[in-house]
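Record format v2
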Amino acid sequence: MRLFVSEGAPGSLPVLAAARRAQGRAELLISTVGPEECVVPFLTQPKVPVLQLDNGNYLFSTSAICRYFFLLSGWEQDDLTNQWLEWEATELQPALSAALYYLVVQGKKGEDVLGPVRRALTHIDHSLSRRSCPFLAGETESLADIVLWGALYPLLQDPAYLPEELGALHSWFQTVSSQEPCQRAAETVLKQQGVLALRPYLQKQPQPSSLQGRAVSNEPEEEELATLSEEEIAMAVTAWEKGLGNLPPLRPPQNPVLPVAGERNVLITSALPYVNNVPHLGNIIGCVLSADVFARYSRLRQWNTLYLCGTDEYGTATETKAMEEGLTPQEICDKYHAIHADIYRWFNISFDIFGRTTTPQQTKITQDIFQRLFSRGFVLQDTVEQLRCEQCARFLADRFVEGVCPFCGYEEARGDQCDKCGKLINATELKKPQCKVCRSCPVVKSSQHLFLDLPKLEKRLEEWLENTLPGSDWTPNARFIIRSWLRDGLKPRCITRDLKWGTPVPLEGFEDKVFYVWFDATIGYLSITANYTDQWERWWKNPEQVSLYQFMAKDNVPFHGLVFPCSALGAEDNYTLVSHLIATEYLNYEDGKFSKSRGVGVFGDMAQDTGIPADIWRFYLLYIRPEGQDSAFSWTDMLLKNNSELLNNLGNFINRAGMFVSKFFGGYVPEMVLTSDDQRLLAHVTLELQHYHQLLEKVRIRDALRSILTISRHGNQYIQVNEPWKRIKGSEADRQRAGTVTGLAVNIAALLSVMLQPYMPTVSATIQAQLQLPPPACGILLTNFLCTLPAGHLIGTVSPLFQKLENDQIESLRQRFGGGQLEESLELKAKVSSKPAVGETVTATGPQQIQVLMDEVTKQGNIVRELKAQKADKNQVAAEVAKLLDLKKQLALAEGKPLETPKGKKKK
Amino acid sequence: MAAAAELTLLEKSLGLSKGNKYSAQGERQIPVLQTNNGPSLTGLTTIAAHLVKQANKEYLLGSTAEEKAIVQQWLEYRVTRVDGHSSKDDIHALLKDLNSYLEDKVYLTGYNFTLADILLYYGLHRFIIVNLKHRLVRNL
């Protein structure tokens, strides 16, 4: 039998402790799988630990696995154990998973964590002391003890969460913990890191259902209306009445945009996407889209804004891709730069410049910074052992080497990591290394390299951080990452590579080398600006006047927050350094990761083919922006949010407001006579608008989007309560009331159109055209709610803004982007997946994966033949045949052959 | 179906003559059985397994170690997943999983009818509409 476990999965504790019981009675293999791997073919959700029995059946319940081990040892089931296990599953687990989630994922402490489990802990304590038995089900340790101990251990091993007054629980827990099998299980699972060892696993799990209903993540809380002071109401009314007169003149567009003394000058960069691949939704929300929202917002505030990005083009990966596609690196860059640019254009990203790093400016600025660092003694030389292929006459980057894993003996381990055991490898440690290009055996050669002397720059960096961080809007994850790097101490960092495709190193003896992409990629921002304007130094050597906002996913933090600042500080040339480093967490796809090679997830170029408009994508991605914690793209959720928030809430409100003006008042905004209720509404909207500003100034993009939806919810309620469609048919006073309500509603719609502009620019423009909103009101957002559509203003033609997404439409998209079958790790490759095959979008499939599929087809073919020979049950044969056909289909797709029975449209 | 009614139904199908009385505990109305010779038993599957033993039909709890574990696994599934469902999507996912599990099986353990089949059937009854031609229903 085979036990599947996952790093940090709490269920491993009781299972490993119980497994000792069955030792010697059955052979047990243990395999480690990823937290999102679906080991059990019939379960839609991933589940570990799982025990695969020798007959192929699965035990996926932690307690059932433990029970099985105990049964194998001759133990007999009894009522009391059953009762404990049932209690554990129905009462303890929901409480515990909430507590662990608070503790491990959300970093809460104390009563927040203990609160949910206190009742359960007391129950155990009372039962133990009432029965006055040392163990839960009698005089000896048994199944119930192991299962409950395993569940509780991650929490209770921290004495802070083992209340002292629960004496019986205390001594029971100590006794069980001291048993050898338990000790060993605890060491294996928690690795002496305590409960934090569970983090990588728990983070990947959906929020426990016991927590749902309580707002923790994305879901809007029930909005409680704030209490308003008379003063607030009076101020809101005054601002409203001044109307368009409040607005300053629109700033004329500039080209190039340059900083202006005495103004707020905002320089915004989005991490440079690597050129060799098509970005997926996670990449898009992580940097370009997030930065775009902020850039658009910044312009609405009339701040002097420059937003730049570009493709990062140098490096090994480009060379590899070029070799794969039979093009030169330059051709690859040209090709993919255009693909990137097209995607961002489709998503309506408002770059002032979208450049690239392979330009003469890049060489000039990089070499200049290097020379300055070199002449100031911040560059070291050292020798590095590297594999060199004599046949190809070049040093091999890690990904160009393959060989036998020194740890597990796997034959096709890569130069940096083994796919089978997952261990990190130094390419020089590989046994029987092979050059991936020519298959000859490389030799170890030493090569001279340059290192940036980070330890020497550490003090300057810390001083700079001390001045920069307090009061800034660096995201917490970025602060945390930088702090942990500094805590571990900085080490010299290699900044050169034995490559051709890169910025040449201007130093004698280094003619065959180029700068490592991470030394010069961040310099790309400077060179891209230099290609935009020859006055680029006014942005980049002007820290006094410029606020630099840099957007990225968290894996990019060390280079932007540490390596580049060190280079810039060492170069001593008054560079503008990052004022606000904005890092997102990761976006997952449905329940797993985006994967190009497996065809899982939606990639930038495919979003266009879904028929769903760019603004809907923008909205949903921003709604689930991984701000503060990982989040996941889900098709069902996208449908839900589109149909509920956009269609029923926002779209419905704006459309109704406009329709009432057209239908009841001939398209002219009616006179408004504000009652005190209306004035309160004005104040509430103003308050929410100010909240929106506060959030966006702090770059809390996702949260600010909620404010928009809140205002439109207020608007819907307002219309619903005041029923203008009824009053319009009533008395003179009723008709006047209908006019006021309609007028106020359509003004709220106008405000929403501006607030929406950073998020959904096209929809915003559509609303503004429908309402004929005057240009200054479209381009400027103040902190007050103004009457921008005064009585007598003629609006345009109103039409619905959003379309309903239908279930079957979404279902077919989910199928289309669900990916192929190669989700199982190699560990599991013998196992035949029974998931439906949806391979239409598999594009890039490596030869290794094709081989895996071929093996699976052969294996499955044998199974079918055997079954047929045995005259097995018809259904069983049919099921196996279906699996075989599935596999063949995937193989055909992977090899790029046309399908025999094409389904849907095949993508390039 | 309340848990007590379900247990009474189970008693009948097991051929137990004297009917037990059940009380209910807490928010979720967990059934409690007061036994004559010993402490009370709490929990649907715990009591059900107890009744099976009372009726001398232990084979309904599985005969091999493996069957026993599988039976208990699905009993746990019944009280956590089936009773703990929160949305339509959950139910749909659950039925899908079960359907896929049962594709090559007659009963939950494979070929032998067990307590797990009975309780899962009771549990699903309320959301499987009879005319929904679900494989699970046919198999049971």
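The longest strand of chain A covers residues 379-389.
The interface with chain B takes residues 41-45, 53, 55, 57, 59-61, 63-65, 67-68, 71-72, 77, 79, 82-83, 85-87, 89-90, 93-94, 209, 212, 636, 834, 873, 875-876, 879 of chain A (CB under 8 Å).
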